[in-house]
């Protein structure tokens, strides 16, 4: 009973972290549209990443963060380049061509990529509720995007850039998941953001020009993108990812178009119509269905053949790297190289996480 209670507490915290990420990422779609007039795609990405890296780096140093285990670096480097770098530049560029609603829809093919890559590389499988939920949510996101983007044509180039962003996002998430076995969410997010900033350094000249010529409101917007949709939202995402299968977590991002509509309504005066509200309801229904992928397997949390530690056969498998199992909360940024947030927490989803 105590194990079930702990699991529910972890799920509730992961859900809260996901909600924060979804809200902030939705606001980023609107902020990017506003900033795109004054900054080039690469300059906006670099400014956003430098701001986030500075904020995360200060927190990391204040908490005496340590260098992660070398086994985490392939995932950190890949997610840093693909998600923090490629994704942000491609999305910024796309939103100079297409509206926020269309961008939110097309980028949300990312969860499909995540589910497919996670099922293949992370061995999370392809449970029917997950696949059904993805299909339902994708349909809902399509309804939302069509309802808010009818006034602006979507060029083929803009859609292609959104697809590039979705690919970078999908690869980045799948690369992050195994890295979280050997490093804390704070380590993965901070260093991944720094890697992305380094990858975007060729746009430094454009950033300097943009800072000199852009109005103060655009620069404030850039700082907001770095502090909140990047530093905070990516940290809460990593926290949730450490406790949730990547495919199932990726499906929750289908609610982002709904939040985009609501934020656009509040910030830009765009009032959602009935069709938009219907699409939002479909998105949420799909997310609810996708979460059944873990709930349906609750009665059978059988331990894997590999025991976590000698003398503890009742515990679910821990990473065979010898990492110290986390009792409940996220590992502190200063944790040792093998102390990492558990990707195989006790409970119903242990068998769906990445293999050790």
Task: Describe this structure as you would to a colleague.
It is a single chain. The chain is mostly helical and 356 residues long. 66% of the residues lie in helices and 0% in strands. The protein contains 13 helices and no strands. The chain has helices at residues 2-35, 41-62, 73-94, 100-107, 110-121, 128-148, 156-179, 185-199, 204-213, 216-241, 246-251, 256-268, 274-295. Helix 4 (100-107) packs antiparallel against helix 6 (128-148). The chain starts with a helix and ends in a 61-residue tail after the last helix. 58% of the residues are buried.
Which key features would you list for this structure?
356 residues; mainly alpha; 0% strand
Extract low-pLDDT stretches. 295-356
The proportion of strand residues reads under 5%
Terminal CA distance: 26 Å
Tell me the quaternary state. Answer: single chain
Rounded mean pLDDT score:
76
Largest sheet: none
Radius of gyration: 20 Å
Put simply, the count of helices is 13
Number of strands: 0
Structural class: mainly alpha
Overall outline: globular
Run of helices and strands:
HHHHHHHHHHHHH
State the helical fraction.
Answer: 55-70%
Topology at a glance:
Blueprint: H1 2-35, H2 41-62, H3 73-94, H4 100-107, H5 110-121, H6 128-148, H7 156-179, H8 185-199, H9 204-213, H10 216-241, H11 246-251, H12 256-268, H13 274-295
Helix pairs in contact: 1-4, 1-10, 1-12, 2-3, 2-8, 2-9, 2-10, 3-7, 3-8, 4-6, 4-7, 4-12, 5-7, 6-13, 8-10
How do you describe this structure in short?
Helix content is 66%, strand content 0%. With 356 residues, it is an all-alpha fold. Mean pLDDT is 76; it is low at 295-356.
